[in-house]
């Protein structure tokens, strides 16, 4: 259907300007009911979007600052791949203290989502010790030696408690800071996995000890290599995963 679907949010709903940072989706600032919001148009399934919008509503109810889905006029939270969400103000983290606050928000996310069901079609790092595919991951496309290194890194986290992870938390654009709160935006990569994958932050803001940071950093590098394979960034990340 495309952007004409935005009319489901009201006859006066309109796009304002494109927003940077979207890769898998077309993201715009929009005006809905006289207020500024964000529209994201993509090809996610209804099951996937239902998982994400339910998660964001849950986190909002629990006091975490996230984009909140705005219902269409018929009450639906998404339609034909389009989701409209509240616009979240704030700046990217600039200081060590900002990143420590981000780490606190991520740990709150993890606490609030223990036992959460997996995002439809996704695999966790533990699943990929045996599975070869899952959403954006296709280990069959990677060199066998690279797959072995990634799996060795993920195996060090196997058996740990899982929760929802943001999945792209060390990206400056996905954390918005103001004087009184930290917001987490862009939940495209969110799924259920081990929380350590979210805690490899600039300056080790999560305060992991040396051994824990090494395990988390290796697993995170392996994950990003697998998800992005085989662009330049993925090749660089795989190079950070130690040989067996």
Automatic annotation (TrEMBL):
InterPro entries the UniProt entry points to: Aminoglycoside_PTrfase, Kinase-like_dom_sf
SUPFAM superfamilies in alphabetical order: Protein kinase-like (PK-like) (SSF56112)
Superkingdom as given in the UniProt entry: Bacteria
TM helices/strands, residue ranges: none
Aminoglycoside phosphotransferase domain boundaries: 16-205
Protein name, UniProt field: Aminoglycoside phosphotransferase domain-containing protein
């Amino acid at each position: 259907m495309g952007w004409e679907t935005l009319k489901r949010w009201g006859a006066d709903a309109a796009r304002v300007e494109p927003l940077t940072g979207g890769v898998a989706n077309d993201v715009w600032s929009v005006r809905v009911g006289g207020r500024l919001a964000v529209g994201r148009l993509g090809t996610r399934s209804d099951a996937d979007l239902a998982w994400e919008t339910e998660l964001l509503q849950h986190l909002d109810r629990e006091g975490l600052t996230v984009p909140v889905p705005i219902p269409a006029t018929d009450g639906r939270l998404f339609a034909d791949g389009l989701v409209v969400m509240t616009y979240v103000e704030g700046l990217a983290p600039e200081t060590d203290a900002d990143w420590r606050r981000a780490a606190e928000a991520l740990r709150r996310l993890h606490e609030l989502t223990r036992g959460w069901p997996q995002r439809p079609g996704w695999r966790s790092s533990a699943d990929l010790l045996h599975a070869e595919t899952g959403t954006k991951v296709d280990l069959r496309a990677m060199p066998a030696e690279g797959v072995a290194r990634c799996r060795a890194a993920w195996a060090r986290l196997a058996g740990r408690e899982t929760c929802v992870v943001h999945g792209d938390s060390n990206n400056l654009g996905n954390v918005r800071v103001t004087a009184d709160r930290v917001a987490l935006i862009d939940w495209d990569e969110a799924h259920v996995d081990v929380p350590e994958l979210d805690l490899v932050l600039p300056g080790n803001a999560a305060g992991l000890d040396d051994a824990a940071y090494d395990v988390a950093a290796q697993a995170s590098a392996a994950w990003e290599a697998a998800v992005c394979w085989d662009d330049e960034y993925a090749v660089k990340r795989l190079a950070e995963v130690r040989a067996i």
